[in-house]
Specification:
- With about 375 residues, this protein is α/β, with parallel strands linked by helices.
- It is about 35% helix and about 15% strand.
- The strands form two sheets. The protein has a seven-stranded parallel beta sheet. Strands 10-9-8-11-12-13 form a six-stranded parallel beta sheet, sandwiched between helices.
- The radius of gyration is 20 Å and the shape is globular.
């Protein structure tokens, strides 16, 4: 049985790319595909010598302007030579599920494309093809792309969502019911230790995008006079630096080992944006650190309020400041934090996705694969 793994693009390093690297262990894949890729952003588990890309790979500066290529992606995805594989596993929050195959197509969906299905909350913030080509033309383009996206979703044999929130979006956008298998956490990257005697600091680990609302974390830490370390790069970098004062350190792009060290040395990890799932809260727990997160999206599934962290109802600096202060002043049960993260480990993830690909979980009940419902409903003992 021949098989292939397809990911949207390896042009940035984020949670979706990390998950794609773990999906590479689901099968002994014969080939790997992406619409475009750059070696620094391609997971080590995806062999560059076996990675095939689309015609978009030849465009200059594709890694810088890939968000502006919206109209080109569906055709480029359909042109990838995936037709003859018995199984194609697509990892996507954009276009990978548009590939064609005569075999079985299983889609691991991080979220239906926000720029198509929630343009008012994505394109308006990200800058915008709609503004670039005019409002009326942009609306017509998005309407056509949504039609193509829905057609592509209908061709898939099986959908897997990374969270209950995403499963709801899949049903709303595509009319498809999905298994829910949460993304994995590489727990072994982190060592759960007690906090040292050094002055406490907070950490944000995120792409520096406007919708991540990192400005809220900056303002909250300023109120508390708690140092803040920000790990990540992105288009909001300049605006955030202009907003920040003394005590905010921008670490930029950081290797995995260094990220683990920064998190382990912190007093609290802050998540101010709405995530589709979000690995950062679980990574923090793996290091024995609590999380203060916006009560929305994936955080409602990964943060047990009062046990593994604190959920905040609004993206408001004053409310986050209160929650951060409470988290820093409290003694947390490190073993319980670690145990919570271990419920989402890599081995369980790979086995769950493999079961779906091999049709060992043929039925979908209310959006949850029965054998894996406990992975998302797990609560620490």
């Amino acid at each position: 049985m021949t098989s292939a793994l397809v990911h949207d693009y390896f042009l940035v390093r984020g949670g979706a790319e990390r998950v794609a690297g773990h999906l590479a262990a689901v099968k002994d894949f014969d080939a790997f595909f992406a619409l475009a890729a750059r070696p620094p952003s391609t997971p080590a588990a995806v062999p560059l010598e076996s990675l095939r890309t689309s015609s978009l790979q030849r465009l200059p500066f594709v890694d810088r302007y890939y968000r502006s290529l919206l109209p080109l992606y569906p055709r480029a995805a359909r042109a990838l030579p995936t037709a003859d594989f018995d199984l194609v596993l697509a990892s996507t929050s954009a276009w990978a599920h548009h590939v064609r195959t005569t075999g079985k197509l299983v889609v691991y969906c991080h979220t239906p494309p926000r720029f198509l299905w929630a343009p008012e909350t994505y394109l308006a913030r990200e800058g915008a093809i709609v503004r670039g080509i005019g409002l009326r033309a942009g609306q017509l383009l998005l309407s056509r792309l949504r039609e193509l996206d829905r057609e592509a979703a209908a061709r898939a044999d099986t959908y897997i969502a990374n969270s209950k929130v995403t499963a709801g979006r899949i049903e709303q956008s595509y009319g498809r019911t999905a298994h829910v298998i949460s993304p994995p956490v590489d727990v072994d990257r982190f060592e759960a230790t007690t906090r040292g005697d050094a002055d406490p600091y907070a950490v944000v680990v995120a792409r520096l995008q406007p919708y991540k609302r990192i400005d809220v974390a900056i303002d909250a830490c300023r109120r508390l006079r708690i140092p803040l370390k920000i790990v990540g790069v992105g288009p909001a970098d300049r605006a955030l630096r202009a907003r920040a004062e003394d005590g905010v350190e921008f670490l930029g792009k950081v290797e995995d080992a260094a990220v683990a060290e920064v998190i382990s040395g912190s007093a609290v990890v802050i998540v101010t944006g709405e995530e589709d799932f979000g690995l950062v809260p679980l990574e923090a727990n793996a290091a024995g650190r609590p999380v203060v997160a916006f009560r929305s999206g994936g955080a409602t599934e990964t943060v047990v309020d009062g046990i593994t962290g604190v959920l905040v109802d609004r993206q408001d600096a004053a409310e986050f400041a209160d929650a951060i202060r409470a988290a820093v002043d409290r003694e947390w049960d490190i073993r319980r934090l670690r145990s919570h993260a271990e419920a989402f480990d890599i081995r369980a993830f790979v086995a769950a996705v493999r079961d779906v690909c091999d049709q060992r979980i043929p039925e979908v009940d209310g959006g949850l694969g029965n054998a894996h419902r406990d992975r998302l409903e797990h609560a620490p003992a």
